[in-house]
Design a protein that fits this description.
heterodimer, A: alpha/beta, Rossmann fold, four-stranded antiparallel β-sheet, 14 helices, B: alpha/beta, 2 domains, eight-stranded mixed β-sheet, 12 strands
Chain lengths: ~375, ~350
């Protein structure tokens, strides 16, 4: 699924979800300046990331902001004040529905989009997209894996070509290119490698294609891998193999991994830290196990209640006790106040007026909600 | 419950220069009135081919090579014997489609015409299959949108002006246009995120309860079916591997492939475990080997597997085994019992650090 484009500008807030396009465009025009003023409710609490236990900080998002101009003075605030770190050997999962801004965050980190505010820092240095050489060095360190293995490989080129190019580009001194290609294919378990080098994308299964995408990203010997829904286009039975491969790669190569997904169960499966995004903001973050077992924010609760739960036999989707948030129906995130306020069962006037900042629940855990206590007890009641 | 749709020994092949690809092999599947039957399997397992073959929607090079599909809806049979869909002529088929058996196609983005308004596409379906005056047809279309919770103001929208979830709802509304007895849903929510997915599915279940149609739900996501379906059929390489109630499949999966599928999705609750998935890839259907097609990927494979005849037999010890008329739990694997299957999986699992 590709991001929709309006006037040549990708509009992250509209991708696929239940946000009707016309409604987004019909929202009242808000100038970015005014909008930011309205946001200044309080500083986000500083959260200690559990991912930091794995290794040193590599890539950091500092107060990232992205505003897309929709034309006719209308704007879409796709990402608001997003801060987090990626650490060597650790997996951070960014979870949210289509249109929540998670892919935009990855694009900002990859340097594909320029932030409207805030910055991305690699090893303490801000990204310099202006200088070609510095940007290439950055790309060398930060690589991207795309969602769609059917769209991200060029159908007229072989697997070998897809891997040779980044090696030549990012490892100019490398004399043994074909040996490196073989090693890369072996790294992603495409063996025997010489059988795959000459193949074209259409000769491969979806899982094999995605392995080629992983190998291509690894060809630059990156420190950071940004994986944007790397398994959501694959069959359920193949997904797990892919996740296990990713997990294995980050351990062996000490990669800092950003795993973007809408499947919170898979985030629990292998992420250290989970960040939940809604309406362009991080609404909850913390250790994966904590966030999935004791979700604090009403949106996280809805997300978890919505995931298919085989243990819930016979419930047949009728149990809407927990996550009694209004049907996603036809509403997108609210434009004023808390973005979840128009769907939240706990929302009151304050929620509709003021956007809550992240508040600490524990040193490693935070959520942005005015009614955290009520939300927590509601969830506890609902699950019993 | 009486069967509304009964697929008997259906086989479908794709004719290719390199020989037939036997996409569906002697599949038996029964759909009772008002029931939700889930059909689950990997890409290429033949689940969509089965559904389209049974409804005569396949074109050459796909050929139905054998079997029958009996439809028992009252409007067609008038109380007599069920009618065979595979023996119908074009006129009879026309009366069947939409009015009796409707389909929600997988990709709403491709199934809706991008240059026609929603209203006109719905009107097309309504006017082709129901005898209504112009005014009544328009009213019918509007009420269809009400049914799936889309405001009537959207009638004049084009598909691109709707979100993915709304487009999928339009597809569902369209399938329900002529009040069918059977609705086949082919991965209706695969491209949607979980919150929207649950929304749409709970709406589908509600509609099923009020309108009383039966659903054949096709998906690769077994975890979803366990919650949604009354009965589940697991398909692999064109054959049914196991059928049973959701409870049978969840608690006492008997076939190693089903067990592998169950072990392919991370759980949200309970202990965090390393999961194995199903190593390997599906077989090449052009050169089918005799016996069980799952052998190369099966942890319980043994020499005798090459001679298995792949017919479904009751799982030993299952409730209702051998009792005629009782929905029973059937498996194609004569060697593995639910207990063995679970032990085999347990030894492959570890606990995540």
């Amino acid at each position: 699924m590709s991001e929709p484009v309006i006037n040549g500008v990708p509009v992250a807030g509209m991708a696929g979800g239940d946000v009707p396009v016309a409604d987004v465009a019909a929202r009242p025009a808000v100038s970015p300046v005014l909008d930011q003023a309205a946001e200044q409710v309080g500083e986000h609490a500083v959260v200690k990331s559990v991912a930091a236990d794995r290794g040193p900080l590599v890539l950091e998002a500092v107060g990232l902001d992205k505003v897309f101009k929709l034309g006719r003075g209308q704007v879409l605030h796709a990402v608001r004040n997003v801060s987090f770190g990626l650490y060597k050997g650790a997996v951070v999962a960014l979870v949210g529905e289509s249109g929540s801004g998670k892919s935009t965050v990855a694009k900002l980190l990859a340097g594909q989009e320029r932030p409207s505010g805030g910055k991305a820092m690699l090893d303490g240095e801000p990204i310099d997209i202006h200088s070609g050489r510095a940007f290439r060095r950055y790309k060398n360190q930060v690589q991207y894996v795309f969602q769609d293995p059917f769209g991200s490989l060029n159908p007229v080129h072989t697997v070998g070509y897809h891997l040779t190019r980044p090696i030549k580009l990012h490892q100019p001194g490398n004399k043994d290119v074909s040996g490196t290609v073989t090693a890369l294919l072996e790294q992603v378990s495409l063996t025997p490698a010489d059988q795959f080098v000459g193949k074209y994308p259409h000769e491969l299964s979806g899982g094999q294609r995605q392995r080629v995408s992983f190998a291509r990203a690894l060809a630059a010997k990156p420190a950071v891998l940004l994986a944007d829904e790397p398994v959501s286009m694959l069959d359920v039975s193949i997904r797990l193999e892919m996740l296990n491969l990713l997990d294995d790669l980050r351990t062996r190569l000490s990669l800092a991994l950003l795993y973007i997904t809408h499947d919170i169960a898979s985030a629990r499966y292998f992420a250290d830290e989970v960040l939940v995004m809604y309406g362009g903001q991080i609404v909850e973050r913390g250790p994966a196990e904590e966030v999935t077992q004791r979700p604090a924010h009403p949106y996280t609760q809805l997300l978890i209640a919505s995931a298919p739960d085989p243990d819930n036999l016979g419930s047949v989707l009728k149990s809407a006790n927990v996550g009694s948030a209004k049907r996603a129906g036809n509403v997108g995130p609210a434009t004023a106040g808390c973005p979840f306020s128009n769907r939240c069962p706990l929302a009151d006037d304050k929620c509709k007026r003021e956007n809550p900042a992240l508040q600490l629940l524990a040193p490693e855990r935070a959520a942005a909600c005015w009614h955290l206590e009520a939300a927590t007890s509601l969830y506890a009641d609902g699950t019993r | 419950m009486s069967p509304i749709l009964e697929i008997r020994d259906l086989s479908v092949a794709y004719r290719t220069p390199d020989g037939d690809v036997r996409a569906v092999e002697q599949v038996n599947l029964t759909l009772n009135a008002g029931e939700v039957v889930g059909l689950c399997g990997e890409s290429g397992s033949g689940k969509s081919t089965l559904a389209y073959g049974a409804t005569r929607l396949l074109r050459p090079p796909a050929v139905v090579t054998g079997g029958s599909v009996l439809y028992g809806g009252r409007r067609i049979t008038q109380g007599g014997d069920p009618a065979d869909l595979l023996a119908m002529d074009q006129r009879e088929l026309r009366a069947m489609r939409w009015r009796e058996v409707a389909i929600v196609f997988q990709s709403a983005m491709n199934a809706l015409n991008p240059v026609l308004r929603i209203q006109d596409q719905l009107l097309d379906a309504v006017q082709a299959h129901l005898k209504l005056s112009r005014h009544d047809a328009r009213e019918k279309v509007a009420s269809l949108l009400d049914l799936v919770g889309i405001p009537r103001t959207r009638l004049r929208s084009y598909p691109h002006e709707l979100s993915g979830g709304m487009r999928q709802r339009v597809m569902i509304a369209m399938a329900l246009a002529a009040d069918p007895e059977v609705v086949i849903m082919d991965e209706p929510t695969t491209a949607l995120d979980v919150v929207v997915q649950r929304d749409i599915l709970s709406q589908v279940v509600e509609l099923k309860e009020t309108l009383g149609f039966a659903i054949m739900f096709i998906t690769h996501d077994l975890s979803l079916l366990l919650e949604l379906a009354d009965r589940i059929a697991v398909m692999y390489a064109g054959r049914l591997m196991e059928t049973g109630s959701s409870r049978d499949i969840m608690r006492d999966a008997a076939h190693p492939y089903t067990m592998g599928l169950l072990n392919s999705f991370p759980a949200l609750h309970g202990p965090r475990r390393t999961l194995a998935g199903i190593p390997g890839s599906p077989p090449d259907l052009r050169n089918p080997k005799p016996g069980c097609p799952f052998v190369p990927r099966c942890p319980h494979a043994r020499p005798a597997c090459a001679e298995v005849d792949m017919s479904l037999a009751p799982v030993s010890g299952s409730a209702g085994a051998g009792v005629p008329g009782v929905v029973s739990h059937l498996t194609a694997c004569p060697f593995v019992t639910p207990q063995m299957s679970q032990e085999g999986q347990a030894s492959q699992e570890g606990v995540l650090s």
